[in-house]
């Protein structure tokens, strides 16, 4: 990689300059002008470009999937800035792989356009109604599917959903746009597209089906039935650590000799496990490393419970102790020891293995990945939206522990750390800026819980009846009290010393 770090005049990234990129940078070998669209992807952030788009690009490098190019899409006004950056460079992306001992750069070109972002989402609806589009994939975050966090049911009363049910031809949400496009496809005699969620949700395909069909049923029950019976919503599990892009990443890509205004850094690991249930064809992603299976559940549970829940185990302790990144947390003796103890005693007992991988071996893999110092995955990014991530990743494990009579001391400590973090100040007195869509509610509950811990657990939209369970409530109250009296590091030490 040293040869990639010597150029002083970065080459602007575009179709016209691909041949002029520095030696050693992989680039598309296919004719991008000959590609035709087959996929619309909604929520086009860093993860999609480092993961699903990369798999498609790699197929194209083999001369395959030329009719599966990707159209990027967004449904919120803030997506417009990313659209402008990507269109300015012909929708090319520089991926920078950051391994502990090397770096490598690759320019990918599977995405060929980014749809205009307009109120009512007309361009998106029209694109998805095109019969050439056979897959609509999404990365809209765990909290973006309009599900009640306690019941897991479709939240038909949400204002966005009520809007799309009342004005189905001018949808506000991605799901309303999907329903509108499916209505047009049905009227034209075209088959439905496959809806492919790539978010970290247990049963993400089933949840996507629930949201799309549930929304359609509010305005057109016959359409809902058609979608439900003829459409496809495969479950999938996605995995790669992809930090946010900031000044350091922008400087790095320029040092490599490329003027890319939207580069993506990622670790040297990817995994994609997909239920092989598509209604109108699919790319052969398995040829470039994806796994098609009829049983995604075991892979999904292992990853969500050990990696995604593990991120939340680390994040709030790191925030309170002013530890900036996940790798720094793994280098912190007390935080990393707490992580291992919670995992081995309270998470691994509720995880089954998958072919070729035991839970213990997977934990060892995750520890190595988290400890990669080249990946600057910030605690702030990982801790974001705890109001979705704790109910989605941690509380199901907590429920399993209570049901089986196992220890929940560590998981109670993790919840206490979250409550303490939401009070808005680190142990050193510095301010924690709002980092959750429901920050005001969380901060108010955290402030009240300082003197009355039950106030935090009384948030029924998060905990349901968990806050009434004596073992959990008692452990939570004890740990939160200790955090306020002695601080985070002393509390972690007490936990590690406990039998």
TrEMBL record:
Mannitol dehydrogenase N-terminal domain location: 38-286
GO molecular function: oxidoreductase activity, acting on the CH-OH group of donors, NAD or NADP as acceptor
Domain Mannitol dehydrogenase C-terminal: 295-478
Matching InterPro entries: 6-PGluconate_DH-like_C_sf (IPR008927), 6PGD_dom2 (IPR013328), Mannitol_DH (IPR000669), Mannitol_DH/Oxidoreductase (IPR050988), Mannitol_DH_C (IPR013118), Mannitol_DH_N (IPR013131), NAD(P)-bd_dom_sf (IPR036291)
Keyword field: Oxidoreductase
Pfam families assigned to the protein according to its UniProt record, in alphabetical order: Mannitol_dh (PF01232), Mannitol_dh_C (PF08125)
Protein name: Mannitol dehydrogenase family protein
Natural source organism: Halovulum dunhuangense
Lineage: Bacteria, Pseudomonadati, Pseudomonadota, Alphaproteobacteria, Rhodobacterales
């Amino acid at each position: 990689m040293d040869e990639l770090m010597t150029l002083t005049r970065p080459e602007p990234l575009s179709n016209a300059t691909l041949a002029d990129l520095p030696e050693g940078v992989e680039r598309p070998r296919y004719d991008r002008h000959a590609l035709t669209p087959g996929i619309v992807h909604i929520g086009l952030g860093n993860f999609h470009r480092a993961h699903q788009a990369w798999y498609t690009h790699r197929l194209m490098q083999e001369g395959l999937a030329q009719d599966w190019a990707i159209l990027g899409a967004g449904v919120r006004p803030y997506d417009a800035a990313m659209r402008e950056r990507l269109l300015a460079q012909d929708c090319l992306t520089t991926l920078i792989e950051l391994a502990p001992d090397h770096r490598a750069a690759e320019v990918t070109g599977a995405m060929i356009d980014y749809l205009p972002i307009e109120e009512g989402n007309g361009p998106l609806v029209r694109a998805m109604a095109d019969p050439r589009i056979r897959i609509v994939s999404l990365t809209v975050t765990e909290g973006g599917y309009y599900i009640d966090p306690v019941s897991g049911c479709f939240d038909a009363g949400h204002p966005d959903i009520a809007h799309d049910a009342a004005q189905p031809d001018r949808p506000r949400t991605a799901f309303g746009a999907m329903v509108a496009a499916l209505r047009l496809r049905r009227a034209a005699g075209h088959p439905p597209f496959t809806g492919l969620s790539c978010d970290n949700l247990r049963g993400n395909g089933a949840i996507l089906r629930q949201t799309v069909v549930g929304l359609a049923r509010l305005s057109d029950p016959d359409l809902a039935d058609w979608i439900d019976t003829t459409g496809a919503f495969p479950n999938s599990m996605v995995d790669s650590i992809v930090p946010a892009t900031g000044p350091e990443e922008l400087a790095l890509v320029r040092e490599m000799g490329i003027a890319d205004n939207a580069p993506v850094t990622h670790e040297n690991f990817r995994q994609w496990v997909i239920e092989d249930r598509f209604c109108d064809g699919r790319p052969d992603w398995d040829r470039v490393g994806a796994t098609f299976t009829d049983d995604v559940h075991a892979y999904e549970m292992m990853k969500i419970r050990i990696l995604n829940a593990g991120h939340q185990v680390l994040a709030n302790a790191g925030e309170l102790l002013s530890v900036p990144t996940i790798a720094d947390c793994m280098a912190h003796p007390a935080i990393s020891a707490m992580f291992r103890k919670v995992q081995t005693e309270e998470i691994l007992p509720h995880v089954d293995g998958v072919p070729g991988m035991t839970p213990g071996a997977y934990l060892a893999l995750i520890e190595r990945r988290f400890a990669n110092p080249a990946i600057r995955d910030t605690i702030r990014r990982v801790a974001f939206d705890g109001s979705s991530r704790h109910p989605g990743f941690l509380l199901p494990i907590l429920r399993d522990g209570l049901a089986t009579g196992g220890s929940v001391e560590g998981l109670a400590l993790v919840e206490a750390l979250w409550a303490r973090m939401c009070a808005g100040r680190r142990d050193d007195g510095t301010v924690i800026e709002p980092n959750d869509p429901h920050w005001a509610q969380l901060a108010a509950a955290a402030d009240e819980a300082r003197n009355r811990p039950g106030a935090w657990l009384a948030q029924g939209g998060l905990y349901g009846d968990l806050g009434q369970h004596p073992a959990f409530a008692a452990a939570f109250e004890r740990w939160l009290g200790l955090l306020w009296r002695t601080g985070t590091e002393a509390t972690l030490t007490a936990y590690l010393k406990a039998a």
